[in-house]
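User: Can you predict the 3D structure of Nitrate reductase large subunit protein? Sequence below.
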Amino acid sequence: MKDQGVSEICSTCPYCGVGCGVRLLADGQGGLTVRGDPEHPANFGKLCSKGSALGETVGLEGRLLSPRVHGREANWDEALDLVAQRFRETIEQHGPESVGFYVSGQLLTEDYYVANKLMKGYVGAANIDTNSRLCMASSVAGHRRAFGTDTVPGTYEDLEEADLIVLVGSNLAWCHPVLYQRILAARKARGTKLVVIDPRRTASCDGADMHLALKAGTDAALFNGLLCAIHEAGALDKEFLATVQGFNEALIAASSDRDTVTGLSEAQLAAFYKLWIGTGKVVTVYSQGVNQSTSGSDKVNAILNCHLATGRIGTPGCGPFSITGQPNAMGGREVGGLANMLACHLDIENADHRAAVHEFWDSPRMADAPGLKAVDLFRAAGDGRIKALWIIHTNPAVTMPDADAVTKAIADCDFVVVSDITAATDTARLAHVLLPASAWAEKEGTVTNSDRTISRQRAALPAPGVARPDWEILAEVGRRMGWREAFDYACPAEIFREYAALSGLAGTLGRDFDISAKAELSDSAYMAMAPFRWPASATRNGGRFFADGRFYHPDGKARMLPIRYRPPASEPCTEFPFRLNTGRIRDQWHTMTRTARSPRLAAHLAEPFLEIHPEDARRLGIAPADLVRLENPQGKAILRARITDAVAPGDVFAPMHWTGETAPSARIDALVAANTDPVSGQPESKASTTAVARFDAA
Ligand code: SF4
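Assistant: Sure. Here are the predicted structure tokens for Nitrate reductase large subunit protein:
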């Protein structure tokens, strides 16, 4: 959408799930000026450091400008024919389960839709998973268990109307900065209380009313303790509980847990419980610290149990609120981008849902069971079950747990295709075929942010060389595999209309992800589409979920789950005595393919580091800025020590951004064990164990 009289283009920031609106102004020479969109409902003109530096990241250094086949330059026809031929032959010889797609929350919804349709409806398997599996799969599982669908009830306005905000496992100040700024503004305006629950003292703790530095991984025990305290205080919402099943079982399980495992004092626990119970409007915000755990789904349900028991859900200023990490992680969930889901909140394990989507797509076959989740997908690539793998806009050789093993699995796979904007990633170097994709500022489509607002992403720059949008590359391969009509899309608007029509079908199956009012949009109306949050205000109690006590389980009731605390899969021991926490820093994004281009972003924290407590440093003879060596059964790393009491004794923290390209000794996910949550399949990225020593120690 171009504003009258100026050439600014309204789009969205490609980094985090806040989904800020941006205004882009191209200078006609490949440069771009970026400012916050004052009218976008996520940010009202504000941007964080990363969003403000977007203009510095669009240069063409390192861009992949043409396809490559076995390392040599090729044209699109040769590359696409080869991809289609190898996938077709693999399916013929080894069956649909022998191929896989590993995609990304960087994909736009239209890209995701085509990838899903190709894999689930035409290949006929569900081996498509996304790097969002590493980010919020436990929240998806928790929502589905409690509500019957993966529906996020919260909105950003709730954060501004709450009287108490509890951040659990979320460094919002660094990872979702504009949303954190909205909270700070609300604190100033109405005195909102802020509690941070995190083993590590982060920037989000600055100025918080309370920081509960619980022992890593004990969140479920804490919220079980809260549920018991709610019961003992007579603070249950008995009317709302009539719409919920499982309260007694949840309470019995919670009562047999001990919140003392949190390591918090009785006074700290009592103060938190009193504040939570005594405040009417509470929003509990959670992200990776909760999700990235072998008990992540249980932690989510322990939080949801407390909100369901008190009816603190779906009303202004109230609710549990999972925040997504990537710009279109939520869109990927809505469009069925995970191996265990179908589009529009339909279930792959429900025969009626599968049949409805199969009929809608009029496809030759349909996946009839969940596919391999990310960790299992790469295990299957390593042991030969997956023989053809297409990796799109993500760098699993760096970011997957047990990254060295994943690198070997990709290297050993018979046929690997990588679509990306650059050939300079650890994963792209392993590809047999490299496909040049359009970058963020060159693409048209839609994204959904953490509060269900769907926004248009718009192109402001031409794609360089012969780079193409992902939906087009995927559709080309679909056509060349023999499904010409099904993938005969001319533009993203056409894909969006098909998706919107499918959502209407989901509406008839009891789902509220219904954007079918957009199914007849003209191309020009799609190009001009303003941000909107689903559901439309006419449905669901003015666009709010669950305050009406209506949920998506067959009986219409929510579920409270009996949760028992489980410790992380790896416990510190004599050989590997430290608990390794990994996470993001303020000014870098994922594996730095874009943010590393900005000198001012690099200036924040210029090199990888390891946070270690002063007592541990003293004991190991580590001085500030010393190099330290980490080692465990998965891998090794060398990092510079930052001695700080922000981490507890016995805990260490390292950022996850540096790669084999940027700092070969600092690929921290090489040390993360591939332990996963049995329900969500999400890896435990925050609780591996490791040995730590000064680099030159004997
Ligand atoms: Fe971009 Fe997130 Fe920053 Fe907003 S808060 S500008 S979406 S990185």
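Residues 1-5 have pLDDT under 50 and may be disordered. The radius of gyration is 24 Å.
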